[in-house]
């Protein structure tokens, strides 16, 4: 069909010019006939009535082909053809043959056929209506015309089909308004995209209008060129199609919007029911099977893990709920009045089910968390009780009282920690019991909830009672151990104090030996020393008695504690030995002080009397007594090592004074005797 040109030029009768270029190749008459039928269908009937001028370009073809084409024109368009111009080649055909044929067929053909050279074609047709290949000035681009024609025909076909489909869809939608259950979703999509078809039509109309404008403005020497009739006719057709298409497309968009809204509403309703059915069905059934609290940390952790899996499944449906809630809220803000009640009902139903299920999940999570804390506290308390029991069952062999005090402190701390853990267990158990009593309200219609709750409650009470009994047993054992520890503290204290008594007694003995050596310078001082010595002995006696009592208490405590390995050791022999040494030394000291007292008393009696008075003359027995006691004291002290010899210096000094007085007394007595002898002879 590219070889056939439907030109926009016109002949002198304003008829259209049809150019048929022939080539050297064999031309298919069927194709030629079909092409002519197509081209002749384009012009309007008014145009066809003015007739056609056909230019058969036979310059590149043979005469028999030209003859066949001309004869075919008689069969295809005999009434419309007014003139056929056969453009002959430069090599002239056989004149005899050609003239004979055309003259012979002229009346039968019904139109005039002339043979003309290309350069003489202007005799019959104006140059401005001929293309440059025939020596004319008509501007014509066949490929452009062909492309535009294809676009026009494609648009006409698609828009017509689209209009029919949109009309059917819109009419069906009017019928479906009364019956909402009837669905015509299968017919909602047209065969062509309306936007694309409209865009194609607008572009085509714009191009046609531009060509018309250019044609009306153009012009030159001679007759001004005007657009083809088919193009002039195409513009109102395109405009009419576009108007109809826009009208139906607007209605179609409203139909699509309504259907989209209904579809979205139905989809939301379907999804809402899916969420509600799952939460009230499988979701609720999952929670119905989860009622235990476990009997240990591991069991409660397993239940928590199972609950997390259930929560994970619920989270997926809760995410759908959030999305649906947002979609419903968007529809409520922009929805029609008739849909508001239905949307609000769906939203309320969805929210009620989701919030109820979320509350049940949270409650179950809280119960499991409380159960886990309860079991952790119970296990910690059990471990503390086991540790305390281990301490109480172990043998006690403290080294000293400080170690015992440390052990007692450790026991008290352990017992206090156990008491705190037991109190915490009671509190957590009470929280769990309160939750168990509340759990009945989330029974999901289950009949045996009270039975399972009773098992859980009994388990909680049993755990707390068992821990209380174990704690009580440990307290009793702690009391026994505390008593034993206190007895051991007393034992160590008695042993320590007994050793201290031994040290004190040793110090008293040492002081008696080293510092208690003075005998006094006179009888008064000696009496004072004697009194102090008695008090000193009393202190030593009480110290010895105290040590003996402590050692006796040690024996009693060892028997009470069944501590056969412990004894007083060498403490008692040391105590007895020191006491024996002390008593011997004390007696010696007592004896010396008494002798010194007697010596000073006698010496002072002698020394107080005046040697000049006869009536105060001392008896010889008094001198002998002083001499005897002084001699004995001198024998005990004189020549003794250390400080003992100087302590008897006063005795020696007094003995010298007594001897001097005795000597004076003897002289006085001798003098008196002599005087008496002299006086006697005189008297006689």
From TrEMBL:
Residues 19-142 form the CRAL-TRIO domain. Keywords: Repeat. GO terms for molecular function: phosphatidylinositol-3,4-bisphosphate binding; phosphatidylinositol-3,5-bisphosphate binding; phosphatidylinositol-3-phosphate binding; phosphatidylinositol-4,5-bisphosphate binding; phosphatidylinositol-4-phosphate binding; phosphatidylinositol-5-phosphate binding. The keyword Isomerase does not apply. Residues 369-479 form the SESTD1-like spectrin repeats region domain. Residues 173-184 have a biased composition (Basic and acidic residues). Pfam families: CRAL_TRIO_2 (PF13716), Spectrin_SESTD1 (PF24915). Residues 173-193 are annotated as: Disordered. It comes from the Eukaryota. InterPro entries: CRAL-TRIO_dom, Spectrin/alpha-actinin, Spectrin_SESTD1. Belongs to the SOLO family. This is SEC14 and spectrin domains 1. It comes from Cyprinus carpio carpio.
């Amino acid at each position: 069909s590219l070889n056939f040109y439907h030109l926009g030029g016109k002949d002198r009768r304003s008829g259209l010019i049809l150019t048929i270029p022939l080539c050297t190749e064999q031309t298919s008459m069927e194709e030629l006939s079909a092409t002519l039928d197509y081209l002749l269908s384009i012009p309007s009937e008014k145009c066809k009535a003015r007739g056609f001028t056909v230019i058969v370009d036979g310059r590149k073809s043979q005469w028999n082909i030209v003859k066949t084409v001309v004869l075919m024109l008689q069969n295809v368009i005999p009434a419309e053809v007014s003139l056929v111009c056969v453009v002959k080649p430069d090599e002239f055909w056989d004149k005899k043959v050609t003239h004979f044929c055309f003259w012979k067929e002229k009346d039968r053909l019904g139109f005039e056929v002339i043979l003309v050279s290309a350069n003489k074609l202007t005799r019959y047709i104006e140059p401005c209506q001929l293309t440059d290949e025939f020596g004319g000035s008509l501007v014509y681009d066949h490929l452009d015309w062909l492309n535009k024609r294809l676009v026009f025909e494609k648009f006409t076909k698609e828009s017509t089909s689209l209009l029919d489909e949109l009309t059917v869809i819109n009419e069906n939608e009017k019928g479906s308004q009364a019956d909402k259950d009837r669905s015509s979703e299968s017919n909602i999509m047209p065969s062509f995209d309306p936007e694309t078809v409209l865009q194609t039509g607008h572009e085509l109309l714009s191009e046609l209008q531009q060509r018309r404008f250019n044609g009306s403005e153009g012009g030159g020497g001679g007759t001004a060129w005007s657009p083809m009739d088919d193009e002039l006719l195409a513009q109102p057709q395109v405009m009419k199609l576009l108007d109809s298409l826009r009208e139906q497309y607007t209605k179609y968009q409203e139909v699509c919007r309504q259907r989209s809204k209904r579809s979205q509403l139905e989809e939301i309703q379907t999804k809402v029911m899916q969420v509600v059915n799952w939460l009230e069905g499988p979701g609720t059934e999952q929670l119905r099977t989860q009622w235990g609290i476990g009997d240990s940390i591991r069991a409660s952790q397993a239940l928590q893990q199972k609950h997390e899996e259930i929560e994970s499944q619920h989270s997926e449906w809760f995410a759908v709920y959030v999305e649906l809630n947002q979609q419903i809220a968007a529809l409520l803000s922009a929805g029609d009045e008739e849909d508001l009640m239905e949307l609000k009902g769906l939203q309320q139903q969805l929210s009620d089910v989701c919030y109820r299920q979320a509350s049940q999940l949270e409650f179950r999570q809280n119960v499991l968390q409380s159960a886990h804390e309860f079991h952790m506290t119970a296990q910690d308390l059990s471990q503390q009780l086991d540790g305390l029991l281990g301490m109480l069952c172990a043998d006690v062999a403290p080294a000293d009282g400080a170690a015992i005090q440390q052990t007692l402190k450790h026991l008290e701390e352990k017992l206090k920690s156990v008491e705190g853990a037991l109190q915490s267990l009671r509190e957590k158990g009470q929280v769990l019991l309160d939750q168990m009593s509340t759990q009945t309200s989330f029974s999901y219609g289950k009949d045996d909830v009270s039975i399972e709750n009773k098992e859980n409650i009994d388990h909680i009470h049993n755990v707390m009672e068992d821990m209380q009994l174990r704690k009580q047993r440990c307290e009793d054992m702690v009391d026994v151990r505390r008593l034993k520890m206190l007895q051991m503290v007393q034992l160590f204290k008695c042993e320590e104090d007994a050793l201290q008594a031994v040290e004190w007694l040793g110090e008293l003995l040492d002081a008696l030996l080293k510092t208690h050596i003075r005998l006094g310078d006179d009888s008064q001082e000696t009496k004072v020393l004697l009194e102090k010595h008695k008090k000193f002995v009393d202190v030593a006696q009480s110290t010895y008695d105290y040590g003996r009592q402590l050692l006796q208490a040690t024996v009693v405590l060892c028997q009470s504690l069944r501590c056969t390995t412990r004894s007083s050791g060498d403490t008692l022999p040391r105590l007895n030995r020191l006491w024996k040494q002390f008593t011997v030394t004390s007696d010696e000291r007592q004896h010396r002080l008494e002798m010194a007292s007697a010596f000073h008393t006698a010496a002072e009696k002698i020394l107080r009397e005046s040697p000049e008075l006869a009536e105060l003359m001392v008896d010889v027995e008094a001198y002998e007594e002083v001499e005897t006691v002084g001699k004995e004291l001198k024998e005990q002290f004189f020549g003794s090592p250390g400080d003992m010899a100087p302590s008897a210096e006063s005795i020696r000094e007094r003995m010298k004074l007594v001897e001097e007085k005795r000597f004076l007394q003897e002289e006085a007595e001798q003098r008196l005797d002599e005087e008496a002898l002299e006086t006697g002879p005189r008297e006689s």
